Recover the amino acids of this structure.
């Protein structure tokens, strides 16, 4: 059961549920591609002992990439961004939990930051600023304009 379903108030309506985009996996994919390249390159090494060391290096790089991917999967699975008609709810974490909520009436600005590829692939960073404080930048959010539009409607 999602966290936000347990904290909704009576008659509070969910406008949009945001999540992290699949692009957050790209750095770990690049590490795995490097590991594959090192492994393939090891077959051109003539010395068998050196070839074994290069292959061990490729394995270490691959393990680092897989661990990074696992960490990102936990982060993506444990992050909830929910906009209701009354507030914005942000939760991250699976084992330990960090939550922040802000009333929609207290939000002053919502900034969406997207580069070229972020616009093409529909992800970006959302910065929510409220009276007196704001959320940390929400990096890697899928469909950030829908999230912004849901916040600014109310």
């Amino acid at each position: 059961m999602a966290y936000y379903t347990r904290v909704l108030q009576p008659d509070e309506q969910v406008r949009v549920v945001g999540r992290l985009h699949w692009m957050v996996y790209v750095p770990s994919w690049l590490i795995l591609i490097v590991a594959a390249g090192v492994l393939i390159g090891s077959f051109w090494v003539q010395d068998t002992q050196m070839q074994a060391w290069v292959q061990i290096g490729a394995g270490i790089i691959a393990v680092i990439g897989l661990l990074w991917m696992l960490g990102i999967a936990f982060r993506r699975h444990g992050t909830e961004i929910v906009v209701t008609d009354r507030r914005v709810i942000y939760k991250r974490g699976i084992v330990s939990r960090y939550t922040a909520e802000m009333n929609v009436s207290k939000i002053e600005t919502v900034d969406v930051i997207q580069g070229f590829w972020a616009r093409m692939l529909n992800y970006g960073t959302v910065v929510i600023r409220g009276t007196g404080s704001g959320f940390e930048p929400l990096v890697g959010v899928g469909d950030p304009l829908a999230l912004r539009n849901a916040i600014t409607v109310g």
Residues 48-77 form the longest helix (30 residues). Residues 14-154 form one domain. The chain has one domain: 14-154. The two ends are 26 Å apart (CA to CA).
